[in-house]
Structures are given as C-alpha cells and as structure tokens.
C-alpha cells in the first residue's frame, strides 16, 4: 500500500449469504471493531440486506455496497436492479464483473463495461473485478487477459470518472478454493494493472487508483499481501462473514 498516494480500502463481498437477522447481528458486531480504522471499510451485501445495512451503518465509518447492478435504467428485465435504484437507496458502492457473475450468469467484458458506465452515471463507486483462470496463468497469458478486461471495462470512462473506480484483481483460481496467489504474484499483477491504467490515462491517474487483491485474502495472509506497494486493500469473500476475521484484515490495512 501507499497511503500517501491513494486510499486503502477493505471491502467485504458477502455473496449469497446472510438473512436480515443474520446481517443485523454481523453488522452490530463489526461496527465497534472497525470504528477506528484508518482505511476505507465497505460491506457489499445481497440486495435483500441493503436496507438493513444502510440503516445499521448510518453514522458509522462503514460504507455499503451492492454486489451487482443492471446497465439499463428500467424496463422488462425481471429480477434485475438498476444503478439508479441503488443510488436512490443511499448505496455508495457496487461490485461489477465479479468472476462468479462472469462464470455463472453470462457476464462478458462488454456487459461489464455497460454496467460500469451505468453505475458511474448513477453516482456510484465501482469495484471493478478483473482476473484470470488457472489455464490462462498456465498458458502465460495473464497480462494479455487482464489488459483486455481492464481496457474494455473502462471504455468511455473519463479520467475524472476514473476517481470513482476501484479495480479488484481476483485470480479466479484463488477464489473460494483456499488457494492464494503469493504476495509477489498479487503484487506483480496489481502493478501491471497500474501500468495499464497509466497507458490508458496517465501516471498520475494510475498512482491515485486503489487496486485491491481479491483472491482468498484472510486474517493470516493479509499483512503480507498488503505490505506490497501496489496492493491497496482487499475484496474479501469468506473472511468478511465473520467479524473477527474481517477486522483482522482491516487492522492489517491500518498498520500497513
């Protein structure tokens, strides 16, 4: 991390977990534990928990995000939620392009771009996910793939709008598998993403961008990962569902 240039942010991605009573219990436990954090703290929760999360985090340092949004403002899109609907509720962040959305729900680089544009236009901050499959890494095309995903996702995003984008590098082979990229592997790709941003925009924009690592970061490995210059936080899956584990990662970012 380099907190002199950019904000460190730890974001929890709850995925499809927690009923409203369970969400209430977790948030109430978490609030005092992260109250003095000197990094950004975000919880991205299922749609059904958004109202609960917004109410319970009011007045706290915890920000609330959604896990997806549609690219149209309204229409015959049964089961979808628009970015404007999220913004109207008071949601600040939204995860776009998570590998599970790409893998299970047909997300493409093009629809990720459309959702990113819609979210930014609605005034939301985007946590934009990019990452390679294991076969991509084994075929030594990680950088080519990450570059393509990043460039397509940010098509039409101005330099000024880029301030509302966080990129989360999530090697797909390390999500929910218990496998983690080494700190050096994570740093290498996060650094490459920063170089890509510098080429698309400029070095100042790249230096100011928060780039998270999102592949099975946990209480045990967070400090080492966050010690790397280009790793500015984490998009946390399973560890975000337990307040002590999530707090340990926040503390690692505080101390870094």
TrEMBL record:
The record's active-site residues are: 98 (electrophile), 170 (proton acceptor)
The entry's cellular-component GO terms read: cytosol
Similarity field: Belongs to the triosephosphate isomerase family.
Q: Where in the cell is it found?
A: Cytoplasm
Q: Which Pfam families match?
A: TIM
* Keywords (A to Z) from UniProt: Cytoplasm, Gluconeogenesis, Glycolysis, Isomerase
Record's catalysed reaction(s): D-glyceraldehyde 3-phosphate = dihydroxyacetone phosphate
> What are the protein's GO molecular function terms?
triose-phosphate isomerase activity
Q: Where are the transmembrane segments?
A: none
Name the residues that bind substrate.
Answer: 13-15, 176, 216, 237-238
- Enzyme Commission number(s): 5.3.1.1
Q: Does the keyword rRNA-binding apply?
A: no
Question: Which processes are annotated in GO (biological process)?
Answer: gluconeogenesis; glyceraldehyde-3-phosphate biosynthetic process; glycerol catabolic process; glycolytic process
**Which PANTHER family does the protein's record reference?**
TRIOSEPHOSPHATE ISOMERASE
Record the organism.
[Clostridium] methylpentosum DSM 5476
What protein name does the entry list?
Triosephosphate isomerase
């Amino acid at each position: 991390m380099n907190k002199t240039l950019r904000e460190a942010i730890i974001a929890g991605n709850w995925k499809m977990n927690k009923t409203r009573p369970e969400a209430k219990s977790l948030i109430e436990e978490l609030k005092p534990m992260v109250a003095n954090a000197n990094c950004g703290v975000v919880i991205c929760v299922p749609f059904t928990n958004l109202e609960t999360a917004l109410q319970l985090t009011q007045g706290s340092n915890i920000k609330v995000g959604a896990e997806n949004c549609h690219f149209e403002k309204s229409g015959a899109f049964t089961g979808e939620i628009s970015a404007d609907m999220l913004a109207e509720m008071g949601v600040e962040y939204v995860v776009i392009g998570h590998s599970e959305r790409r893998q299970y729900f047909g997300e493409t680089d093009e629809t990720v771009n459309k959702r990113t544009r819609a979210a930014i236009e609605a005034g939301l901050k985007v946590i934009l996910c990019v990452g390679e499959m294991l076969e991509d890494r084994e075929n030594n095309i990680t950088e080519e793939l990450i570059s393509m995903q990043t460039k397509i996702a940010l098509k039409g995003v101005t330099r000024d709008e880029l301030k509302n984008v966080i990129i989360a590098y999530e090697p797909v082979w390390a999500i929910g598998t218990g496998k983690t990229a080494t700190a050096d592997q994570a740093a290498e790709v996060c650094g490459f993403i920063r170089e890509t941003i510098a080429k698309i925009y400029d070095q100042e924009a790249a230096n100011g961008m928060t780039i998270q690592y999102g592949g099975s970061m946990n209480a045990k490995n967070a400090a080492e990962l966050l010690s790397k210059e280009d790793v500015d936080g984490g998009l946390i899956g399973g560890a975000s569902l337990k307040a002590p584990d999530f707090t340990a990662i926040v503390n690692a970012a505080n101390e870094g």
